[in-house]
Fold:
Amino acid sequence: MSAPYSRRSILRQLTVLAAVGSASPAFARDRKQKLLVERVEILVPGLPPAMDGFRIAQLSDLHLEPFTTEEDILHSVELCNSLLPDMVALTGDFVTHTARPAPKVAELLSQLKAPYGVYASLGNHDFASGAPEVIRALTERSIPVLRNEIRRIHTDNGTLVLGGFDSMYVNRPDVRKTLQDWKQHQPLVLMMHEPDAADTIAAAGVKALQISGHTHGGQLVFRGKTPMSLRRAKFGKKYLAGRYEVGGLQMYVNRGIGCVGVPLRIGCPPEVTELTLRSPELLRA
Structure:
């Protein structure tokens, strides 16, 4: 590793920045102001022309406590609602080290508004902290948690199949079992916390859209790179942020809202994603 990225210099800088971030309300306000909306259009195989333009808002990696505040989450919810999405997808890590904040984060997320519903899948921190408590908190606020299952979203213009997988920290995705009632010609969107699962899902011949989080976009990105001394999360090493195509699978990786390890984001601001689904049939017309 070259001198600018020496482990000692990085850790020294992070120690100073972490102290500032923890102690300074101004820093917290500045971090909130950097929340961005990323607008993305993605072709979804099998999407009927009448459903072209269906919009999904994605939130991920909220991590309520110790560094993400209720105000941070409420701000992301308000921004999400301002987009007037058709549906909202929450792709895991609602809590960090304990499930104690789960009722509060669920209460805040219950303010999300979308005519075709709000749905969730779980992340590795949710399982490590206490999946039953997180699931209970969300379902009590009318937010279904999809665990290795699919749900059909019926609209006036057609039906979208929505799937949710458990975290790869719990088990390898059983693609065949989870999608046994899905037909290849049906439009499919999959919520999967860890993006590297795309390799397994694509290898099963699935043509769909996968939406993920987990990586925080690297969280600490220096000169466009995440130093090797700050390794990316397990199952989040190949696909860091943004759009990817893996076999017949389209994928988008959300940078998330919260932080883990240190209360900092450098070079990868938090985001709310607006995914506009497009029909391949209109492209061929």
About this structure: The CA atoms of residues 69 and 98 lie 15 Å apart.
